[in-house]
Each structure stands twice: as C-alpha cells, then as structure tokens.
Amino acid sequence: DSLSRLFSRCGQVQYVDICDKPGPGEKKDKLASKFFDHKTLKGFQVAYVVFRKPAAVQAAKALSQEGPLLISTESHPVKTGISKWIANYEASIVDPKELKAEVDAYMQDYDKKMAEEEAKAAKEEGVPDEEGWVKVTRKGRKPGLPRTEAANLRMLEKEKQKRARKELLNFYAWQHRETKREHIAQLRKKFEEDKQRIALMRAQRKFRPY
C-alpha cells in the first residue's frame, strides 16, 4: 500500500508484486489466498511496481532527482514495534464468514472446471482424431460417494469388515498349513516305522540251522 501511494504520483499503479529475490517480476494470474498458502517474506525483498501506462515508468525514473521517498510520514505512518505486532495478530484472526465465502467460491470454480472437463471428455469420446485414433475413457458405473459424515462412516465400516475378513482368511490359511505340515510329519513317521518293521521281518526270515 505504501509503495502504491508513493508511485501513484507518476501514474496509475496497476499492482505491486513483492518477491524474496529478483526474478521476471511477472504477475500471477490469480492472487494468493488470504487464508491458505500465505507466506510471510523476511529480510530484504524486491518490489516490482507495474503501471497501467508505459509513460508512468519515465516519470518514476525522474523521482530520483527529487530526493529520497519517505514511506512513513505523519499523514501516512507505517506501524512498527508493538503497534505492528498488534496489527499482525489482529490480521491473523480468521473471520469465519470470509473463510466460508472463499472456500465456497473455490469449490464452485472447481466444480465448474470438473463439469467442463467431463463434458469435453464425453464430447470427444468415440470421435477419432486427425490420425484416426479413438480416445477410450473408462467411467465408473457407480457415481461418486457424497462427501458427508454418514458416507465416511459407512466407508470406514466397510474397510473394517474387509480387514476382518482378510484376517480370518489369513488365519484359515495358517491353520491349513499347520494341518498339512502335521499330516506330512505323521506320514514320515509311519514310513520310518514301516521301514523298521520290514527290516525286522526280513531279519527273522533268515535261515538259522543251529
């Protein structure tokens, strides 16, 4: 605000972009959110003052001949110290109505963008391009779940039941492996006993004249 006020004598200021380091100085298409992704720049900064008309740039260059420009004056003081801390604290308090209005506006833009993309995809589906390729899209049969608390609870309950069934199947699989392992051990034991019995029977059939 102070920079816009100082340079407004040269011409109408379109905007002032403050950056942490020198760069292209190009203005973003959309201003950053007041509540989200707010980054406070610390230390030395670079400001780009953009005028609405090019002639104001030459007038701004001529300001150096008039002496230094004072940002803080009696008529337009800049808050420092405790006054600045109090102002920063008051600015950090979120107004629920403004926050709700910004979130609603963002969601409206998002829903509009998604609807346009879906309409464009539906229009282009099945239509071959210049090379003859046809874009195939896969759409789910079930519509998206409503973003409500009841829907979230149902989803959590389904996940819980799914995990319980998976744990039960894993237990049955482990029990089946243990039963199979015990059966193999019994077969090996019986096989060894049969070998010993056959060896004993063969030894008893040997001819002993005395």
UniProtKB/TrEMBL annotation:
Domain Ribosomal RNA-processing protein 7 C-terminal, first and last residues per copy: 91-210
Family statement drawn from the similarity comment of this UniProt entry: Belongs to the RRP7 family.
Keyword Coiled coil attributed: yes
Name of the protein this chain belongs to: RRP7A protein
CDD domains, alphabetized: RRM_Rrp7A, RRP7_Rrp7A
Lineage start: Eukaryota, Metazoa, Chordata, Craniata, Vertebrata
GO biological process: ribosomal small subunit assembly; rRNA processing
Pfam families reported for this sequence: RRP7
This protein's UniProt keywords: Coiled coil
Gene field: Rrp7a
Entry's Gene Ontology cellular component terms: CURI complex; UTP-C complex
Residue ranges the record marks as coiled coil: 177-204
